[in-house]
Amino acid sequence: MDTDTIAAISTPIGEGAISIVRMSGPDSIEIASKVFKGKNLKEAASHTIHYGKLIHPETKETVEEVMVTVMKSPKTFTREDIVEINCHGGFVSVNRVLELILENGARLAEPGEFTKRAFLNGRIDLSQAEAVIDLIRAKTDRAMNMALKQMDGRLSRLIQSLRQKLLETLAHVEVNIDYPEYDDVEEMTLEVMKTKTNQVHEEIEQLLQTARQGKILREGIGTAIIGRPNVGKSSLLNALAHENKAIVTDIPGTTRDVIEEYVNVRGVPLRLIDTAGIRETEDIVEKIGVERSRKVLKEADLVLLVLNYGDEWTEEDENLFKAVEGMDVIVIVNKTDLPRKINMDQVKERSKQYSLVTTSLIQEKGIDELEQAIADLFFEGDLDAGDLTYVSNVRHIQLLKEAKQSLGDAISGIEAGMPIDVVQIDVTRAWEILGEIVGDTVSDSLIDQLFSQFCLGK
Ligand code: GDP
Ligand code: ZN
Questions:
Q1: 141-210+391-451 belongs to which CATH class?
Q2: Range(s) within the chain of domains with CATH label 3.30.1360.120
Q3: Whose CA is nearest to atom 14 of ligand 1?
Q4: Which residue among 65, 89, 155, 298 sits deepest, i.e. has the most Cβ atoms within 10 Å of its Cβ?
Q5: For ligand 1, what atom is nearest to the CA of residue 227?
Q6: CATH number for the domain formed by residue range(s) 216-386
Q7: For residues 331-346, average pLDDT
Q8: What is the pTM of this model?
Q9: CATH code for the part of the protein at 6-109
Q10: Quick one: which of 266, 112, 125, 142 has its CA closest to 215?
Q11: Complex confidence, ipTM
């Protein structure tokens, strides 16, 4: 078990002028006391915050003005003593604080090590730990709520109740195997087993059905805005970004200059593809229009195809329609403030299987309708995220599929008249697989692998 004290910069979610250096472990308070000038932290009550200065113990130089939070074991995230040092200022000063802490006895935490300690100390289960990863990555409020819900243990409780059902069934079988003298016991047992197994099988199926939406909420819907030059693609991008406060992020694990732009439309996170392409090609007169469109289409889950109301339908428009066949498309006829030149009957005919919206972006008209069309497409009516347990984690989805498979095997085994102990193996397997989701039957190497995915400081 870890007994040293770890430290890292724990970057808060969202932007902010305040950075936090977090320490966890038995020496946290001792180490903080060495460098903190202010209240005696060793005498501070748990969960209190104190203003003071960080002083270098040798040079006596003031490093930072800080607020220090003291949280004592066991009522903390890791169940260890935690000290959080809040400092304003940017990257440089927060790094100086971290350095000072490390010089005075803490060890730099590995990625995910705080959460790993919380898990190992029984504070959270594995699916909750993974929810922390999702939380860090959550791009929109909705995805954030989903991650929080999972952290609440909602998914865990559901999985536990499924496991409980399977366990009861297995216990039932054990009892009956111990008393084989009754006739038709085997038959009765198989009947109970079949019913219960079917129930759990169905519940897993339902969980998996939420998985697609869950994934979308977590990663964002890859959205391509395409159309001929000058139809209003950039204007559309700006309208969506203004209305919905675009979030620009670095993609984790790639080079610094790759950015992704997210907008949150009625709770649907759109990950806008190649916005640089839309924003930067203005001067080059977008010669590459259709070429570029083909490229971004490869990545897209959703296409916003823009047409010009004030211009005739062209062959290029026709080509774009061909390129998006079979995809989720919203057709936008923009510039309705201009005299109509486009043949709307033709547009309607061509857009039969898609949503069709008319806009005048310059007059800010039609944007509401467009947003509604986007929401409708992905939530098919009035899906209320608050009431659903989403499964959005790839590992969970995989395990649920495997558990479902094992239960399916059990059910067909029963139907084919297999001996009960054979069926039992499949049910036990499903029980074990479900256990992996909440970390009950999980191997050490898997734990290490999972926690290494964390950002530093979590
Ligand atoms: P893009 O080339 O497809 O990205 O088109 P832009 O968004 O750059 O727009 C091209 C021109 O059309 C700009 O001068 C816009 O101001 C103008 N524009 C955009 N939307 C409208 C609209 O709804 N009505 C009118 N009249 N002009 C628009
Ligand atoms: Zn443009």
A1: mainly alpha
A2: 6-109
A3: 230
A4: 155
A5: 3
A6: 3.40.50.300
A7: 96
A8: 0.51
A9: 3.30.1360.120
A10: 142
A11: 0.98
